[in-house]
Design a protein that fits this description.
The protein has 200 residues and is α/β, with parallel strands linked by helices. It contains 9 helices and 7 strands. The strands form 2 sheets. A 5-stranded mixed β-sheet has the order 3-5-4-6-7, sandwiched between helices. A two-stranded parallel ribbon has the order 1-2.
Length: 200
Protein backbone atom coordinates (compact mmCIF):
# COMPACT_ATOMS: atom_id res chain seq x y z
CA UNK A 1 0.00 0.00 0.00
CA UNK A 2 1.01 3.67 0.26
CA UNK A 3 4.25 4.57 1.97
CA UNK A 4 5.58 7.78 3.47
CA UNK A 5 9.13 6.74 2.63
CA UNK A 6 9.14 7.27 -1.15
CA UNK A 7 12.33 6.26 -2.93
CA UNK A 8 11.35 7.30 -6.46
CA UNK A 9 10.73 11.02 -6.03
CA UNK A 10 14.25 12.27 -6.75
CA UNK A 11 14.54 10.05 -9.83
CA UNK A 12 11.15 11.37 -11.00
CA UNK A 13 12.28 14.97 -10.55
CA UNK A 14 15.50 14.29 -12.44
CA UNK A 15 13.54 12.66 -15.26
CA UNK A 16 11.26 15.68 -15.67
CA UNK A 17 12.21 17.60 -18.85
CA UNK A 18 13.63 21.10 -18.31
CA UNK A 19 13.57 20.74 -14.50
CA UNK A 20 16.94 21.25 -12.82
CA UNK A 21 17.17 19.23 -9.59
CA UNK A 22 19.68 20.06 -6.86
CA UNK A 23 20.36 17.89 -3.80
CA UNK A 24 23.09 19.74 -1.87
CA UNK A 25 25.44 18.17 0.69
CA UNK A 26 25.80 21.09 3.11
CA UNK A 27 25.06 24.79 3.56
CA UNK A 28 27.68 25.82 1.00
CA UNK A 29 26.20 23.68 -1.77
CA UNK A 30 22.73 24.83 -0.68
CA UNK A 31 23.72 28.47 -1.12
CA UNK A 32 25.10 27.74 -4.59
CA UNK A 33 21.97 25.77 -5.53
CA UNK A 34 19.77 28.68 -4.40
CA UNK A 35 21.90 31.14 -6.36
CA UNK A 36 21.75 29.01 -9.50
CA UNK A 37 17.97 28.63 -9.16
CA UNK A 38 17.57 32.41 -9.02
CA UNK A 39 19.93 33.00 -11.93
CA UNK A 40 18.31 30.36 -14.14
CA UNK A 41 16.04 31.94 -16.73
CA UNK A 42 15.18 28.95 -18.92
CA UNK A 43 13.21 26.69 -16.59
CA UNK A 44 12.27 25.73 -13.03
CA UNK A 45 14.55 24.35 -10.32
CA UNK A 46 13.83 21.87 -7.52
CA UNK A 47 15.88 22.05 -4.32
CA UNK A 48 15.85 18.74 -2.43
CA UNK A 49 17.12 19.50 1.06
CA UNK A 50 17.96 17.22 3.98
CA UNK A 51 16.12 17.71 7.24
CA UNK A 52 18.99 16.48 9.42
CA UNK A 53 22.11 18.44 10.28
CA UNK A 54 24.95 17.76 7.85
CA UNK A 55 28.67 18.36 8.40
CA UNK A 56 30.41 21.15 6.52
CA UNK A 57 32.80 19.91 3.84
CA UNK A 58 36.04 21.91 3.46
CA UNK A 59 36.72 23.17 -0.05
CA UNK A 60 39.33 25.12 -1.95
CA UNK A 61 38.41 28.19 -4.00
CA UNK A 62 38.59 26.03 -7.11
CA UNK A 63 36.15 23.52 -5.64
CA UNK A 64 33.79 26.30 -4.55
CA UNK A 65 33.74 27.62 -8.11
CA UNK A 66 33.08 24.12 -9.47
CA UNK A 67 29.91 23.49 -7.43
CA UNK A 68 27.81 25.37 -9.99
CA UNK A 69 28.92 22.81 -12.60
CA UNK A 70 26.75 20.21 -10.89
CA UNK A 71 29.48 17.71 -10.05
CA UNK A 72 33.05 18.18 -8.93
CA UNK A 73 35.97 16.47 -7.19
CA UNK A 74 35.52 17.04 -3.45
CA UNK A 75 38.25 14.70 -2.18
CA UNK A 76 41.11 13.43 -4.31
CA UNK A 77 44.17 11.22 -4.06
CA UNK A 78 47.70 11.36 -5.36
CA UNK A 79 47.94 9.97 -8.88
CA UNK A 80 45.18 8.17 -10.74
CA UNK A 81 42.37 6.95 -8.47
CA UNK A 82 41.65 3.24 -8.20
CA UNK A 83 38.03 3.95 -7.46
CA UNK A 84 35.61 6.87 -7.51
CA UNK A 85 32.80 7.37 -5.01
CA UNK A 86 29.93 9.49 -6.35
CA UNK A 87 27.48 10.87 -3.81
CA UNK A 88 24.86 13.54 -3.37
CA UNK A 89 23.12 15.23 -0.48
CA UNK A 90 23.51 13.69 2.95
CA UNK A 91 25.43 10.74 1.53
CA UNK A 92 28.43 12.91 0.61
CA UNK A 93 29.60 12.82 4.24
CA UNK A 94 29.29 9.02 4.16
CA UNK A 95 31.38 8.85 0.98
CA UNK A 96 34.05 11.08 2.51
CA UNK A 97 34.21 8.91 5.64
CA UNK A 98 34.47 5.72 3.57
CA UNK A 99 37.17 7.28 1.39
CA UNK A 100 39.15 8.22 4.49
CA UNK A 101 39.04 4.62 5.73
CA UNK A 102 39.97 3.23 2.32
CA UNK A 103 42.83 5.72 1.95
CA UNK A 104 44.22 4.73 5.34
CA UNK A 105 44.62 1.19 3.99
CA UNK A 106 46.47 2.41 0.91
CA UNK A 107 43.62 2.78 -1.57
CA UNK A 108 43.62 5.68 -4.00
CA UNK A 109 40.11 7.09 -3.75
CA UNK A 110 38.35 10.08 -5.29
CA UNK A 111 35.06 11.45 -3.97
CA UNK A 112 32.80 13.29 -6.40
CA UNK A 113 29.97 15.38 -4.99
CA UNK A 114 27.19 15.63 -7.56
CA UNK A 115 24.48 17.97 -6.27
CA UNK A 116 22.94 18.50 -9.72
CA UNK A 117 23.19 15.69 -12.25
CA UNK A 118 21.55 17.59 -15.13
CA UNK A 119 23.94 20.50 -14.68
CA UNK A 120 26.92 18.11 -14.65
CA UNK A 121 25.71 16.37 -17.81
CA UNK A 122 25.45 19.78 -19.53
CA UNK A 123 29.18 20.41 -19.04
CA UNK A 124 31.63 19.88 -21.89
CA UNK A 125 33.17 16.46 -22.38
CA UNK A 126 36.60 17.59 -21.17
CA UNK A 127 35.24 18.70 -17.81
CA UNK A 128 33.18 15.54 -17.33
CA UNK A 129 36.26 13.47 -18.15
CA UNK A 130 38.34 15.43 -15.63
CA UNK A 131 35.85 14.55 -12.90
CA UNK A 132 34.93 11.00 -13.97
CA UNK A 133 37.81 9.63 -16.08
CA UNK A 134 36.58 6.92 -18.42
CA UNK A 135 39.61 4.79 -17.53
CA UNK A 136 38.47 4.51 -13.91
CA UNK A 137 35.68 1.97 -14.12
CA UNK A 138 35.57 0.98 -10.45
CA UNK A 139 32.88 3.44 -9.39
CA UNK A 140 30.37 3.38 -6.57
CA UNK A 141 27.41 5.76 -6.35
CA UNK A 142 25.74 6.35 -2.98
CA UNK A 143 22.25 7.80 -2.50
CA UNK A 144 19.31 7.02 -0.22
CA UNK A 145 16.97 6.84 -3.20
CA UNK A 146 16.15 4.46 -6.02
CA UNK A 147 19.41 2.89 -7.19
CA UNK A 148 18.68 2.51 -10.91
CA UNK A 149 19.26 6.17 -11.78
CA UNK A 150 22.98 6.03 -10.99
CA UNK A 151 24.03 3.24 -13.34
CA UNK A 152 24.58 5.72 -16.17
CA UNK A 153 27.37 7.22 -14.04
CA UNK A 154 28.93 4.04 -12.66
CA UNK A 155 28.57 1.93 -15.81
CA UNK A 156 28.24 -1.82 -16.14
CA UNK A 157 31.28 -2.42 -13.93
CA UNK A 158 30.17 -0.14 -11.09
CA UNK A 159 28.05 -0.55 -8.00
CA UNK A 160 25.25 1.51 -6.48
CA UNK A 161 24.58 1.70 -2.76
CA UNK A 162 20.95 2.75 -3.02
CA UNK A 163 17.36 1.73 -2.38
CA UNK A 164 15.79 -1.29 -4.05
CA UNK A 165 12.55 -1.28 -2.06
CA UNK A 166 10.36 1.11 -0.09
CA UNK A 167 11.68 2.51 3.16
CA UNK A 168 10.66 1.45 6.65
CA UNK A 169 9.80 2.97 10.00
CA UNK A 170 12.54 2.82 12.62
CA UNK A 171 15.21 5.05 14.18
CA UNK A 172 17.51 6.55 11.54
CA UNK A 173 20.59 4.64 12.67
CA UNK A 174 18.76 1.33 12.47
CA UNK A 175 17.47 2.11 8.99
CA UNK A 176 20.87 3.23 7.69
CA UNK A 177 22.42 -0.04 8.82
CA UNK A 178 19.52 -2.12 7.49
CA UNK A 179 19.73 -0.57 4.02
CA UNK A 180 23.53 -0.52 3.86
CA UNK A 181 24.20 3.19 4.25
CA UNK A 182 27.13 2.76 6.62
CA UNK A 183 30.82 3.41 6.25
CA UNK A 184 31.58 -0.27 6.80
CA UNK A 185 29.21 -1.39 4.05
CA UNK A 186 30.44 1.17 1.53
CA UNK A 187 34.04 0.14 2.22
CA UNK A 188 33.09 -3.52 1.75
CA UNK A 189 31.35 -2.74 -1.56
CA UNK A 190 34.43 -0.89 -2.82
CA UNK A 191 36.79 -3.68 -1.78
CA UNK A 192 34.58 -6.27 -3.47
CA UNK A 193 34.45 -4.16 -6.61
CA UNK A 194 38.22 -3.71 -6.73
CA UNK A 195 38.75 -7.43 -6.16
CA UNK A 196 36.38 -8.31 -9.00
CA UNK A 197 38.03 -5.72 -11.25
CA UNK A 198 41.38 -7.45 -10.83
CA UNK A 199 39.79 -10.65 -12.05
CA UNK A 200 38.73 -9.15 -15.38
Amino acid sequence: GPTHQPVEQIASLRATPHLSTWRPADTVETAVAWQQAILRADGPTALVLSRQNLPHQPRSDEQLAAIQRGGYVLVDCAGTPETILIATGSEVALAVAAARTLSSSGRRVRVVSMPCTDRFEAQDAAYRESVLPAAVRARVAIETAHADYWYKFVGLDGRVVGMHDFGASAPAGVLMKHFGFTEEHVVAVVEELLASSRGR
